[in-house]
Structure formats: structure tokens, C-alpha cells
Amino acid sequence: MMNRNVAPEARGITFTGSTLDRADQLRVHPERLSVAWADTRARVVRLDGLDPLPDDEGMLATGPIEPGARLADHALLGLQEDGVPLFIALHVEKKPHEPPVFPPKVWQIVPHLRPDQAALYAGARSLVDWHDRHQFCACCGSPTHPVKAGWSRQCGTCGAEHFPRTDPVVIMLAEYEDKVLIARGARFPPGRFSALAGFVEPGETIEEAVRRELWEETGIRTGRVDYLFSQPWPFPSQLMIACTAQALDCALTLDLEEVAEAMWVSREEVRAALAEAPDARFQPPTPVAVAHHMLRHWLGE
Amino acid sequence: MMNRNVAPEARGITFTGSTLDRADQLRVHPERLSVAWADTRARVVRLDGLDPLPDDEGMLATGPIEPGARLADHALLGLQEDGVPLFIALHVEKKPHEPPVFPPKVWQIVPHLRPDQAALYAGARSLVDWHDRHQFCACCGSPTHPVKAGWSRQCGTCGAEHFPRTDPVVIMLAEYEDKVLIARGARFPPGRFSALAGFVEPGETIEEAVRRELWEETGIRTGRVDYLFSQPWPFPSQLMIACTAQALDCALTLDLEEVAEAMWVSREEVRAALAEAPDARFQPPTPVAVAHHMLRHWLGE
């Protein structure tokens, strides 16, 4: 039996629609894991640093398990639909000056990946990068080592177990009188606007985080919040939670350290921007980003 | 201007409905933070280890800033509606054998807290516990110190900045022919059932995580997934994301290491359980847990 994971709600949102069975039961059964590792069909996903290496058909590069390679240095990503086990090496050769977030080169490669391969890449990149940045125990400072087929790390000294992070981020369009609020982040190029976003903090709900972020960054109060859809974002490992929020007023008071500009835009203005019309009022977010799909969804597309 | 954070969607779900303004702009402005610390009205929330200390009116115990106390040893939780700054000490005196999760004593105290105080407790507990378990840098193993008013830690050696964790967890009711699927976890007492749940992993959406967990733990396939509401869960720091999922079949194949029993229950059976009827088929989850509200929501309550 395979894990049929293709989601009705996946509307072509990048990094969604994985067809891999994560086969979590293998992670905690060393003998079953060894069988997967010994499978002559098993493949190892290859990355270029943390970047994807796609072939002409949009598939991620893979290779056989090299002679002498050790299971302990790899994570089991899961089983393909044909049952072939997929692994990835946990050691990453980071390139000099590799930007930790928003690597522009990756944004150019990702649209050429087959959707299920982009989803596979997202999980693999987040996992490998997490291992790279979590070699030591946050509790006691001692070295940790991968356990559970690369899905956690354990401290050799105090025994604490550490799991990969997934940081929930709310990203939202406030609505007011048939307009939505978009913003240009302090580090965005001129003209480029997107949805506002921020990390969910300990002790708050998704809806409370949406209201807090809109309040902090633009000074507007919001009532009802509706969840739209979500997206894994592997730079380094966010869960983007897309929402709309009903604004109770429209006067903006910007936090200029976070937001350079913000404006309410009409459906016509959003349509022109997405169509890249020469007289469009703003440049929309890249189709790789969930904000792009939020704007399309708002237009009813 | 105050942060009006009381949420229309907060249907009495424990740990939601905070009225605190987190005042994030103070965290990064040392001089504004010092003004808050010097405010003679400022209060420090007191905990008993990691447990709440409520008074007879359901308020968390607070005290003044003690002479000699250092701002660097405290986190700014935020500003009350009357503008009073609330801090908490970052050093926690953990009690011997303090259970890291599911502390039964806390579950007994929390229902006696005023809802906004329970929400305040949730954020404070998660934050303090995170500091306690993250004294060292995961990148290089060196000691870290609190920065940004206790909302992050920085490594004195490599400079890496670490933020408090919030781990997204999906919790779901699968529906099939007007019944929902509930389960008894392998460590639950006999008779006690709840909704299935699991951590969202890197590289998957909320909906994909719901389908994967149901598949892994009960062997059922699901189609449409709908988000219901969310809850912060401070044992130690989860974001519970409640969903329903439409099951495509009802035959169960349990992962017995995770799930001792699972069953499809009718509205009548859920109603009897929530009413604690003597002949009820199962004991429902505690009202503190979001699963309780998911069952009530399913009944249309």
C-alpha cells in the first residue's frame, strides 16, 4: 500500500504535492531500516551544497549508494511510489557565502523541477540544513549524533533528543472594502510588494498571530481571520500558513524598520500586477511564494 | 493604542484569548526596554517551577521587580491593557522529576485560571522552559545568552541567533458516514480516547501532515482536509492545528506502537461521552485540550 498524498487543495503551490511515503515506521526499526539500506534499488538524492541538481526532465539528481557509505551518515527520506528507498547524505558541503535564506539561484531552479520533486527537495533541504546547524546539544553543549534514520539527533552526554524544527509563520492579506493590504519589506527591491508575514510565537493561536503581526507592522486592527492554505518553505524550514483577515479600519501606521511601504490595492490593480502589465502599480511576489497564490485566490482564480 | 487581541474564533479554548500587547518593538530598542524595566508599576509573573501560581480570582501571581534584579535575566512578556509592563524571570527552579510534558497538576490548576491568564501562562511557560533547555549553541556548542528582551538567545562564540521553538502539530478528526475516528494512545489510560495528532515535518503542508498521520497511525486514506481552529499548547511549546479530514474508507490498520485502540463513533456516542453518561462508550479528552472542542464543534455546539 502506498501513501497517496497528492492533495486536492494543492493548487500548484510550489513545494506541495509530495508523492513520497515517509515510511516513519522504518525510522525506529533498525532491522527494517537496514533492509531498505541494503535494497539494491535504493537511491541517494544529490544536492549541490543546499541547492537542487535537476535533470532535463525536472527530476532531482540521484545516485546509487556508494561503496563504503554508512547508513548512520544518511537520512531516509522515504519510499517512492515504486517502493524504492530514497536516502540523502547528512553531511553538506556548504558553498562559501551560501546565503542562509532566499538564495536567488534556487528560486530560478525550482520552477523547473517537477512539482513532486520540488516538494521532495523542500523536505530534504530543510532536514540536511537542520543537521548542519544542530551538531551540538542545546541543553548541555556536547556533540549530538543523528538517530531514527536522520529524523532526530541525540546527545551523547545528557541523552536529550532534538527534533528538526518547523517554524510556523502566518502570512496574510487584510481585506477592507474590497481591497487587500500588501507591503514592501524593508529589504525588498523598489516596486516589489507581497503579503505581510511573521513567525507564530509561543502562546498564541494562528489567528492571534495574524492580528498581532498586522497590528505591529501596519497599525490596523482586524476581526475575523480565515485560513486559506499552507506551504512548506525550506529557507530554512518554515510552515507558511496563509490567511485572510477582515480589517476593522484602513489607516496605516507602519513599523518602518520592518515595512518600507504598504498600500491597499483593488482587484484590478492586483490583476494588472499579476499580468505584469507595464503600468501595474506594483511587482507581485514570485510564483514560488505562497503570497502569489494568495493574490490569485483573492481574485477567485 | 492597545492590541485588541480577543478573537472571535476563541470559543473558550484554553490558552487562547490573551489580552497582552507583546510590544515587540520594545524588544529591539534597549532604551525603550529600559524605560519599561524602570516603570514603577512593572510586575514580574511568578511561577512555581514551571507551574502556575493562581490567586483566588484566577490571576497569575505577580510581584514587583526585586531590588538588585537584572533586566538581562528577565523576558518582557508584554504590556497589560493598562500599560503595565509584565516581565518574567528566565531562570527556572525546576522541581525534581518535573515531567517535561503532560504535568497532571497543571491540568488541574489551569481550569481555575481566568482565560486571559491561562493564555499568558502558556506563552510564559513555553518561553521560560525554552531558555532553560537552550543554554548552549546548537551550531558550535558554546554558551548562549538571552537577547531581545528574552525573545532570542545569541551565541557568544559564533554569533548564531536562536529563536524560541513553536512546533506545529496537526490534530484531526477523520469523518466517514457521519462518524468520526477517535483513538486511545498507547500511553492513555483504558477508556480514554482523543483525536489523532502528530508533528508537522519539514517539507509538508498542514493538509499533507493530516493525511500522513492518519495513514501512518490508522491506515486510512483521506481526501479533503478542513482547518477548524488552533491552540497554543505549552507542554512544552506546540501549536495545535485542529482539522477535519474526509476518510475515503473506514477499514483500520493500527500502528500499535502509537495507537492502542481506534474506533468510529456516532454523534450520539460523542454526546454521551461529553455528558459523562455512565454507559458512554469512551471517556472524552479533558476540556483543557483542543480535542474536546473539536468533538463539541463536530456536534455543532
UniProtKB/TrEMBL annotation, chains A, B:
Matches recorded under SUPFAM superfamilies = Nudix
Q: Where is the Nudix hydrolase domain?
A: 164-288
Enzyme Commission number(s) of this protein = 3.6.1.22
Spell out the reaction equation it catalyses.
a 5'-end NAD(+)-phospho-ribonucleoside in mRNA + H2O = a 5'-end phospho-adenosine-phospho-ribonucleoside in mRNA + beta-nicotinamide D-ribonucleotide + 2 H(+)
Q: Name one GO molecular function term.
A: hydrolase activity
Keywords for this protein: Hydrolase, Magnesium, Metal-binding, NAD
Return the Gene3D superfamilies for the record.
Answer: 3.90.79.20, Nucleoside Triphosphate Pyrophosphohydrolase
Enzyme kind, highest EC tier: hydrolase
Report the domain of life of the source organism.
Answer: Bacteria
A Pfam family in this protein?
A: NUDIX
Question: Which cofactors are named for this entry?
Answer: Zn(2+); Mg(2+)
Keyword Metal-binding on this protein? yes
Q: Which NCBIfam families match?
A: PRK00241.1 (NF001299)
The family note in this entry says: Belongs to the Nudix hydrolase family. NudC subfamily.
| PANTHER family for this protein | NAD-CAPPED RNA HYDROLASE NUDT12, NUDIX HYDROLASE, NUDC SUBFAMILY
Name used for this protein in its record: NAD(+) diphosphatase
Identify the species of origin: Sphingobium lignivorans
